[in-house]
Amino acid sequence: MSSSFRSTASSSSSFCSSSSSSDYSRTKLLKKNRHPKKQRRRNDDVRASSSSSAFDEQLKLEWFNFGPRGTMLPQTFQQQQKSGGFLSTSGPLHVSTPLIYSQPLSERNERKTYIKMDNCQPSGSFKLRGLGYACQKALLLDGKKTFVSSSGGNAGLAVAYSGSKLGAKTTVVVPETTPEFIRDRLESYEAKVIVHGKQWSEANELAEKIVAEEDAFFAHPFEGEDTWTGHATLVHEMCAQLRDAGETVPPSFICTCVGGGGLLLGIAQGLREVGWAKTDVVVSETVGCDSLYQSVQKNELVTLPAITSVAKSLGAAQVSPSAFDLTKQWKREGKSPRIHSTTVTDDQAIDACKNFANHHRALVEPACGACLALSYEGKIREMQNDMNTNGCVVVEVCGGAITDLSSFM
């Protein structure tokens, strides 16, 4: 046990609750490793059960046991059985990503700042957390052997990757604006790519028709409780990693970007699950795809007439109604987390990407730059008086799949 963990173990109950990647989960995981044959029998018994809810809970339990300190962490894709050529897994398709202290961002924020590197996910973004979980459930519980997605961005890549690992047939409908290198990447996961429409809404309409015709699972880019549950693993990992880093109080801010709102909803769920009631979430959009910001300003759901920002992967014409409602819960009910919605310009987002590449040797997309710009442009520093705790800042580095080096040349 590390000295940093020993120093904070006595206060762990106040730092994060037992529903996170805690000693309880780690102990169960170690016991599973000591008796692999018994564990396989238990898994077989659960799958044979007629109760889908019981299996759902077992899947979720085993999923969360793959925490950053779990001994099975490197085995992110555990084959449990083969049935009709399709693989069943109880472990997650995503990996536990690094949480790294950032000196450059700490200096700009005037507060200790960590970066959560979800750009290191196999599919290139955080989307694999939620959509991987949703696809696993669709296959294991509902027997869906075909997945359909309507995203030409990170969500489509996450679904295509999930299909390739689960042995499922995958179709991704993308709008005409989807870059050729993204289409090629989708096809590399053996996904069928259909180009349809000038914008996402048109591609989505065709995807929904295909779902009905093929009795497939529709992997929506940002809606769905299973997707949000998968995204919540971000906070569970963060909780254990910060504690191991010697932090004794929860973060003051978690900074992220928002497009459709799935990541925001997942983070909020994770905060409730680990008991971080005083941690605020700062969400950023670029001007031109700022549906949440405009909705908050007008206190009603706003549908953008067009997406005019370079941050195309934030380009939802209307944010999820659930995400919009989440921003109002603090004022209406005093229900945490408190959400701070803000915007940056395209130029600020792109500059943030370049600065981040110089400082941390990682290339991320402008959508991610929208979040990083909060630190590089001094917005987090300006919000110091709004912080509820004396904790650190965590910046979610959401992804880098929808970019390449030529984009910044």
Automatic annotation (TrEMBL):
Q: Its Enzyme Commission number?
A: 4.3.1.17
Which PANTHER family has this protein been placed in?
CATABOLIC L-SERINE_THREONINE DEHYDRATASE, THREONINE DEHYDRATASE, MITOCHONDRIAL-RELATED
Which intervals of the chain are annotated as region Disordered?
A: 1-53
User: Residue ranges under compositional bias (Basic residues)?
Assistant: 28-41
Q: Which family does it belong to?
A: Belongs to the serine/threonine dehydratase family.
| Example GO molecular function | pyridoxal phosphate binding
Q: Which domain of life is it from?
A: Eukaryota
Identify the Pfam families for this entry.
Answer: PALP
Q: What class of enzyme is it?
A: lyase
Q: Which reaction does it catalyse?
A: L-serine = pyruvate + NH4(+)
The residue ranges of the Tryptophan synthase beta chain-like PALP domain are: 96-380
Protein's name in the database: L-serine ammonia-lyase
Which InterPro entries is this protein grouped with? Ser/Thr_Dehydratase, Ser/Thr_deHydtase_PyrdxlP-BS, TrpB-like_PALP, TrpB-like_PALP_sf
A single BP term in Gene Ontology: L-threonine catabolic process
Q: Where is the composition biased (Low complexity)?
A: 1-24
Q: Which cofactor does it need?
A: pyridoxal 5'-phosphate
What's in the keyword line of the UniProt record?
Lyase, Pyridoxal phosphate
